[in-house]
Design goal:
By secondary structure, the protein is mostly helical. The protein contains 8 helices and no strands. α3 runs antiparallel to α4, α3 crosses α7 and α6 packs antiparallel against α7. The chain is flat, with a radius of gyration of 23 Å.
């Protein structure tokens, strides 16, 4: 329909077609959408800046290991909080229809979901990184960039899914239905402390077939 309308007029056809296509895409964007996109880019960049140092092995010295873990522990709290904050539930049609759902509980479970998803994504990246380290693969900057999209993406997806799944399962959104999972808010610093105390063991290269030549 769009290109058919563009065909009306004097030749050549392609300038009107290009303008029509550009207008169709530009109509989908607004200043608020651009701002939201920029904010998400900053979340991704902050995730890379704070989390990736803890995945660059081996550490040069204990001081570098300490600061890497401090960055990770801070990021494990700050980044899920930002993901939860940027996950809009107020304008969501589903939650607007369910007026009985306490909005505070909805927001808390949104933050909980962001934290759960972020940590699941982080440990997926951690395990892949550990396997690559044992196989003798070196880090690449572009791989780090790709890797950090995983916890951010899973954090956003989980922030959407956890409140919905709890509501579907219990027909309500009560805090007592998922209280145990709020422990994920502190999971990052706890894991950071454990990793700091045991990274020399965890990073010991595997023997046998996994040992690099």
């Amino acid at each position: 329909m769009m290109l058919a309308k563009a065909q009306d007029g004097p030749p050549p056809f392609w300038p009107r077609a290009m303008v029509a296509i550009f207008r169709r895409f530009s109509d989908r964007f607004s200043a608020s959408n651009v701002l939201i996109f920029i904010l998400w880019v900053w979340v991704w960049w902050l995730s890379w800046a704070l989390i990736i140092p803890s995945l660059r092995w081996p550490f040069v010295n204990p001081e570098e290991a300490l600061w890497s873990v401090i960055f990770y522990s801070s990021g494990s709290i700050v980044i899920p909080a930002l993901i939860g904050a940027f996950t809009n539930t107020k304008d969501n049609e589903f939650w607007q229809k369910n007026v009985s759902v306490p909005r505070l509980n909805l927001r808390l479970y949104t933050y909980q979901g962001a934290s759960v998803g972020f940590h699941v994504g982080y440990f997926f990246v951690f395990m892949i990184g550990l396997l690559g380290y044992n196989l003798g693969f070196s880090n690449a900057l572009w791989l780090e960039f790709v890797a950090m999209t995983i916890p951010v993406t899973l954090g956003y997806a989980s922030a959407r899914l956890i409140p919905y799944n709890l509501f579907i399962a219990y027909k309500r959104l009560s805090l007592r239905d998922g209280t145990i999972f709020f422990v994920f808010f502190l999971f990052g610093p706890v894991w950071g402390y454990f990793f700091l105390e045991s990274y020399d063991i965890l990073l010991t290269r595997a023997l046998g077939l996994l040992s690099p030549s």
